[in-house]
Amino acid sequence: MDRKSIIIKAAIIVLMVAMDIVLTRYLSIETPLLRISFGFVPIAFVAMKYGWLTAGLAATIANLIGVWLGPFGFFPGFTLTAFLTGAVYGFVLHKNPGKPLNIVIAAAIVTIVLNLGLDTIWIMIIQDAQFQELFWARIWRTAIMLPLQIVFIFILSRVAKFAKLI
User: Fold this and answer.
1) When comparing pLDDT for 25 and 58, which is higher?
2) How does pLDDT run across 84-135, given as a tens digit for each residue?
3) Which residue, 4, 62, 156, 157, has fewest beta-carbon neighbours within 10 Å?
4) The CATH fold of domain 3-162
């Protein structure tokens, strides 16, 4: 890779990390139990363009900067979920970004396994709450976010392909 390509790649990743932070931390609907945001869109783009490791690291960096900006404290479980989110998108979407089945699989793993499963466990640990209470409260978020992620990632993949960005 030449110097110009590296600089362009770094600039795109930094821009996507910044977009993730803004969409997740400042333009989201948030309650103590759940957050509905579109921060997944820039990470999905990084995943489609650069793969699992870059997307995982971008999501991790966005999480850590977001924690630093406040108001929530650091919890390593959420940082792990952030990395795994980027990695899942990258594994599933990098080679076939516009394939509808891949989009459904990636969104399902992220929303059901990572957000509903792992994040509920992390909240349970932090708030010393019962899993079942949190699970049933957070299932609504999953019911909202799964179709939203599928639609938005599908649109993103089409627009990015049309613009020759991926």
Assistant:
1) 58
2) 999 999 999 998 888 999 999 999 999 999 999 999 999 999 988 888 888 8
3) 4
4) Arp2/3 complex 21 kDa subunit ARPC3 (1.10.1760)
CB atoms within 10 A of CB 151: 12
Predicted structure pTM score: 0.91
Nearest to 66 by CA among 78, 49, 52: 78
Cα–Cα–Cα angle for 119, 123, 126, nearest 5°?
A: 140
Please tell me whether residue 49 adopts helix, strand or coil conformation: helix
Closest CA to 47 of 100, 87, 18: 87
Give the per-residue SS3 of 75-106.
Answer: CHHHHHHHHHHHHHHHHHHCCCCCCHHHHHHH
Q: Is 51 left (phi over 0), alpha (psi -120 to 50) or beta?
A: left
